[in-house]
Design brief:
Blueprint: E1 8-17, E2 21-29, E3 35-43, E4 45-52, E5 58-66, E6 71-75, E7 78-82, H1 87-99, E8 101-113, E9 122-133, E10 145-150, H2 151-159, H3 166-180
Parallel strand pairs: 4-9
Antiparallel strand pairs: 1-2, 2-3, 4-7, 5-6, 5-10, 8-9
Helix pairs in contact: 2-3
């Protein structure tokens, strides 16, 4: 099958816009030739995730209440990075803000689209090692609990569906494979 765009956009209308997202409704002709609508969410930031690992393979999870889920969530440190900013600089800032840590070694381990049927949100995930503990500086909208646990415990939390955040799941599963292959 040829890799081409089978969609035809007839008209587009901006429905919502704020500092973080823009929602556009498109009037389209779909791949089968029928008329329809397609809603698109454009994200104005990258989604950045950081898996901190110390020399004993401990990691840090951040717990917080997630408004859209109406539930508490355990995650790796993560946040938004402006599209024009170096993603690694965004990762350094997020790790410091949420955990108070800085790291001397950074390795990008994954790029992924988080919900590509409705959004263009790109996530970049790093492993941070050579950790130095400092003081956390969460944003005013964040009420966080940070806990240090063995990496294998975080892996078990993924396997038991206790961690469901997609960036965290991807980071932990990818890191598990990389550890098994001595790549971390």
């Amino acid at each position: 099958m040829e890799e081409r765009n089978p969609w035809k956009t007839l008209e587009s209308e901006l429905k919502y816009d704020n500092n973080w997202i823009k929602v556009t409704e498109h009037q389209v002709i779909n791949p089968s030739g029928g008329k329809g609508i397609y809603g698109e969410v454009h994200f104005k930031n990258l989604a950045i995730g950081i898996l901190p690992l110390d020399e004993d393979y401990n990691t840090w999870l951040v717990g917080q209440y997630r408004f859209p889920l109406k539930a508490y969530s355990w995650e790796i440190p993560e946040g938004g990075g402006p599209l024009g900013e170096d993603p690694l600089e965004s990762a350094r800032r997020e790790l410091l803000e949420e955990t108070g840590m800085s790291a001397s070694n950074w390795k990008e381990i994954q790029r992924m689209h988080l919900s590509n049927s409705v959004s263009d949100e790109l996530s970049i995930i790093y492993v941070a090692t050579g950790l130095i503990q400092g003081i956390a500086m969460p944003e005013e909208t964040e009420e966080l609990i940070v806990k240090k646990i063995p990496f294998d415990e975080a892996y078990e939390m993924v396997m038991k569906n206790e961690i469901t955040d997609s960036i965290s799941v991807a980071a932990i599963l990818k890191a598990k494979l990389m550890i098994m292959e001595n790549l971390i």
